[in-house]
Write a structure and sequence with these properties.
Chain lengths: 261, 240
């Protein structure tokens, strides 16, 4: 159970990190498209530069645009003079800048120009990453609930098995806390051992995945999938599971004892 | 019945029923003096074990009032019960030893529950085991002990904490006459030290051998001899 929880939690954290990196890298970045804009390109660039809040303006080289088109239109796209290649300009705006005002300025010299925010273009990807992140969180919560339920069942089983001992100890003056301590100590030890074993197995799998080349998330994040704080969080999960098991065992025993005088 | 300084147990119109069944104990009204020695007798099914359960706080009465150690415990909160139970030693008819613990650890259990340190436990437990003739079986788990040995461990566990009230259900049922006499002597010694002893038994010789004991007789859930007037009854007359 700890193995699955750790792998899912690691995936969720990696997805969250990737979404964060993608979102921050797209923040303020816009793409200006000017169809048939070769003649007005310089004027459009000047108009963009003069707009308030524009911090960077960089025309995408025609060769790069043609190379992109070549993927869909074939090798002719690289050399054809008849192909209406649009002018593409990368813009970076401050958070307070008005994209509409920038677009209006550019349109005054290049009618038909369109200003597109990277964030809007990446919207579906970001939404997918967010959905997967929440799915991972949901799975972790589900695994937590399953862990708690299995501890309840295990504790009830142990309680029934040792009912005679419980009755004897209760009869000679053991308090609920003393009896619960016996069970919670045993359950905690088992949970800790299981948690460590699951964590080691999950760690091996995560190392294997991290070392594998061509990781999509790694490419998106542009770096390690998990930050040190994430690794610390994951390392704490077995301890958290042990604590959870201990508390659940204690609650289960004390609840069962409530029906005994 | 009013509380009395000399009484360790007071029952006032006590009745007990299990679930919705008929009352197994009815209108019990008696008091046991602190430091007394009592035998509880009666035919099978008369309610002896149920009465003992009320005495060692395993059961609440369904009606009436039960006072132990001068405290009204009929409806006391269950959180208060452990501290009173620690003042009571119980010898169960079926011993109820903890199977996975050694004889030593079974006897030590009440002291550990009471929070005594291991240094305080070792000597008294070994001494007690020696007293019941089990010094060489200290490390033996109950399943490897004979019925009589298990019974002696159960008795040692009941008396190790020098309880104020000792409740024993057929404590000599599985031991020979010699050991029965030794155990009775142990109970008598504890009684002389101030422990109130209540022994449920069918063993007439045990009753006859105990001077100064009072006899409580249950029949059909009612106490026939609440006054304890049947002191040292002739075997034929006192117990049917």
């Amino acid at each position: 159970m700890m193995f699955v929880t750790l792998v899912v939690a690691a995936a969720g954290l990696a997805l969250a990190n990737a979404a964060r990196v993608v979102e921050s890298s797209a923040a303020g970045r816009h793409s200006l498209q000017i169809p048939n804009g070769a003649r007005v390109a310089e004027a459009a660039l000047a108009a963009a530069r003069s707009a308030p809040g524009v911090t960077a303006v960089a025309r995408v080289p025609d060769s790069e645009v043609r190379a992109t088109l070549e993927r869909w239109l074939g090798s002719e796209a690289a050399v054809s003079t008849e192909l209406p290649v649009p002018v593409l300009v990368d813009l970076e705006l401050t958070p307070s800048a008005s994209a509409r005002e920038v677009e209006t300025r550019v349109r005054s010299v290049a009618p038909g120009a369109r200003l597109l925010a990277y964030r809007d273009q990446l919207g579906p990807l970001l939404r997918s990453l967010q959905a997967l992140k929440w799915l991972a969180l949901g799975l972790v919560l589900l695994m937590t609930a399953a862990t708690a339920a299995s501890v309840v069942l295990a504790t009830r089983g142990a309680f029934d098995t040792h009912r005679g001992t419980v009755d004897v100890m209760h009869g000679i003056g053991a308090t609920d806390e003393q009896l619960a301590a016996l069970f919670q100590r045993r359950i905690a030890l088992d949970a800790f051992k299981g948690g460590i074993a699951g964590a080691l197995a999950a760690g091996a799998v995560l190392l294997f995945v991290a070392a594998a080349p061509g990781s999509l998330l790694g490419d998106l994040a542009g770096g390690p999938l998990l930050r040190p704080v994430d690794l610390l969080l994951l390392a704490l999960l077995p301890l958290a599971a042990t604590l959870l098991a201990t508390l659940v065992a204690r609650h289960t025993v004390t609840k069962a004892l409530r029906f005994v005088l | 019945m009013s509380a009395s300084a000399g009484a360790i147990v007071e029952f006032d119109s006590v009745g007990l029923r299990y679930g919705t069944g008929a009352e197994v104990l009815r209108d019990l009204q008696f008091r046991l003096s602190r430091g007394g020695f009592y035998f509880l007798t009666g035919p099978s099914g008369a309610g002896k074990t149920s009465l003992l359960k009320l005495l060692y706080l395993a059961q609440r009465p369904t009606r009436g009032r039960v006072r132990l150690f001068g405290e009204e415990l009929s409806d006391a909160p269950r959180e208060a019960m452990p501290s009173f139970r620690r003042r009571i030693g119980v010898v169960f008819q079926d011993f109820r030893l903890v199977r996975h613990l050694s004889a030593f650890d079974n006897v030590a259990l009440p002291l550990r529950i009471a929070g005594r340190s291991e240094a305080e436990i070792d000597g008294p437990v070994r001494e007690m085991l020696a007293w019941v003739g089990l010094a060489d079986r200290a490390s033996a788990p109950p399943p490897t002990l004979s019925g009589g040995e298990q019974q002696r461990v159960a008795i040692a566990r009941a008396v190790i904490g020098h309880p104020e009230l000792l409740v024993a259900d057929e404590p000599t049922g599985n031991v020979d006459a010699e050991m029965a006499a030794r155990l009775l002597h142990l109970f008598d010694s504890l009684n002389r030290l101030g422990t109130t002893v209540v022994v449920a038994t069918h063993d007439l010789s045990l009753i006859a051998a105990t001077k100064g004991a009072e006899l409580l007789r249950l029949e059909g859930g009612r106490l026939v001899d609440p006054t304890g007037s049947l002191r040292h009854p002739p075997v034929a007359a006192g117990v049917r």
